[in-house]
Amino acid sequence: MSDVRSTVENLAQRFARAGIASPVADAELLVGAVCGWSRGDVLTRAFMGTELSEPQTATIEAWAARRENREPLQHITGMAPFRSLLLHVGPGALVPRPETELVAEWAIEALRQVPSAAPRAVDLGTGTGALALALATEVPHALVWAVELSDEARVWAGRNIAEFGDDRVTLVAADATTALPELDGTIDVVVTNPPYLRESDVPTDPEVSVHDPSLALYGGRDGLRDVRSFTARAFALLRPGGTLVLEHGDDQSADAVAIAREAGFRMVTAHTDLLHRERAISAVK
User: Fold this and answer.
1) What does DSSP say about strands 79-82 and 85-88: parallel, antiparallel, or unpaired?
2) Nearest to 128 by CA among 104, 103, 182, 92
3) Contact status, residue 149 vs residue 173, Cβ threshold 8 Å
4) Per-position DSSP letters for 110-133, written without gaps between them
């Protein structure tokens, strides 16, 4: 049998050779996922010299081989953390990113300020349902519509909404640029992480370029096609005084601000992430 410490060290070395950016973290998270432990538990058990069972070792090895081939760790474990949630994820849906948690934060704050017993929010292009469910779970009196065009992504969104949505999140199969016309002028907050990569900006990491769906990544030749159309749809959905929160690429802030103003929004604000990069805007109708 192998012990936790030597297994994590061996995996980290293998992952580093495979070009994985965070080999130690991935090794610890993989072992934890197999054994049902938190990352902190893994560190504790490594210090204590805990031995792994043969079935645990066999599963770790099978998963490690997949990770060495640059399959996303979240696809292997089937789960991805997002704020307070542990979401079901897999092929066909964009894996939720840590930077999008800040987008959720700004949308949650806007929704909390709505003077209504049942504030309304829409997530355009929901993917796994991450943003919609963050709003619904952290603003527990809100009603949320989660719009997704992709059949594959809706499978994951549906699982997550069934688990966490508390019957207040409605999954809508529709194009985000035309969805929910019956709600025009009634929504308090629209949040969205639209596709914003330029067609020429193919990511170098196989986890993204091979495994993330193109529909969720690429926003046309200039990367702004969906920023424009999602912003326009948000303006129609929002009531006067309603708020749009939109994620964009770290070189697109000025364009996103201009697009929002051209669509009719006022009080457009650029927001920075934890690395002080401008990664989102908020705008008031």
Assistant:
1) antiparallel
2) 92
3) yes
4) HHHT--SSS-EEEEES-TTTHHHH
- Helix 39-48 and helix 4-17: axis angle, to 10°? 120
Domain ranges of the chain: 4-69, 79-284
pTM passes above 0.90: yes
Where are the extended beta strands (E) located within the chain? 79-82, 85-88, 120-124, 143-148, 169-173, 187-192, 238-247, 266-272, 278-284
Cβ contact 157:176 at 8 Å: no
The fold of the 79-284 domain, in CATH, is Rossmann fold (3.40.50)
Task: Tell me which amino acid residue 30 is.
Answer: L
pLDDT digits (tens, 9 = 90+) for 226-235: 999 999 999 9
Q: In 3-state terms, what secondary structure has residue 93?
A: coil
**Do 82 and 126 form a contact (C-beta atoms < 8 A)?**
no
| Amino acid present at 237 | L
